[in-house]
Structures are given as C-alpha cells and as structure tokens.
Design goal:
Distance between the termini: 123 Å
Radius of gyration: 32 Å
Order of helices and strands: HHHHHHHH
Number of helices: 8
Strand content: under 5%
Largest sheet: none
Shape: rod-shaped
Oligomer: single chain
Helix content: over 70%
Number of strands: 0
Number of domains: 2
Structural class: mainly alpha
Amino acid sequence: MRKYAITLPLVLVFAVMMTACGRPPQAEMDMARADVMRAENTPNAVTYAANTLSLARTALVRMEEEAGARRFDAARTLAMEASALAERAISEGSAAAFLAREEAAALVSGLGAPIQDATNALNAARQAGTVSLDFDVLSWDLDWVRRNYNDARQSLEDNDYQTAIAHGQNARALLADVNARINDAAQLLARK
C-alpha cells in the first residue's frame, strides 16, 4: 500500500508535467508556413504589400523561435498572426494592383490627344516661321514624350503598372514643358 502511496503522486506529477509541456501546434505552424509562402509567391503582395508581408515573415520567425523554446501557446498565437498577415498582404496587394492599373490606364489614355495637339502646335509654329523657337530641341523633346508614352502603354499591356505610371508621368511632365515653351513663344509673338 505504501508503494502505491508514493507511486501515485509521482505518476500524477509526471502527468501534470507532460500536460504542461504540451505539444507543438503543428497544424497551425504548417498552415502559417504555407500561407506566408503563398503570399511570397503572389506578385501583387510582394510588389504592393511588402510591409505587411515583412510582418508576416517576422511573425513566422518568432513562431519558430517560440516553438523551439517549447512555448507552444505563444507559437500557436504567432502562427495565427503570420497566417492572418499573409492573407492581409495578398488582399492588400490585390487592391493596390487594381488601383495602380486604374491609375496607369487613366494616365496612358489621357496622353494620346495632348501629344498630338503639341505636335500640331509645333508644326504650326514651324510653318508660321516668325516664332522664335528651337524646333530641333522641341522635336527631340516631343520624341522623348512619345517614347515615354509608348513605354507606358507597353508596360500597361505587360501589367507592370508601376513602370507604366512612371513612364506616363515622365511623358506628362515633358509634354507640359514642351507646351509651356510653345505657348511662351506664341505669347511673345502676340505682344509684338
């Protein structure tokens, strides 16, 4: 009887210790790894939600550290956090890509007619002959506008919205400069 009196408490202590140690949240950790990997392989998440994706990666690293230290509750919490952040990165990336596509499309579609108008204005000024302009420089600048415009259109077609926006903004800025020089020369001529 005395043997059982000593053995039973030892078995209970051992059982409590084993329960306290717990088991790693393997399913949650595997899911977190898969979710972060999926986000890392989603181009829009990488391009447009890099900060959120970085937070997901950090949570994943911390999850591994906590699991290695046998703090399984913390590891489980971090696994859920990593999964949620990975999902958020995919969602944010998708939304941002949509907005970038819309911005790029609006920018590109709004450049065709103004480029043609500037070309026509430059040709009219050249034919007038009395306008004091460096037609070679302005023609060269208009060629750069057209190149940026064509690059923007191609980038938009290739779904590279950030590059399309950059080329479109360059084209718009150069075009504004060309138009300003043509308008300034026309106003000087009108004052004479």
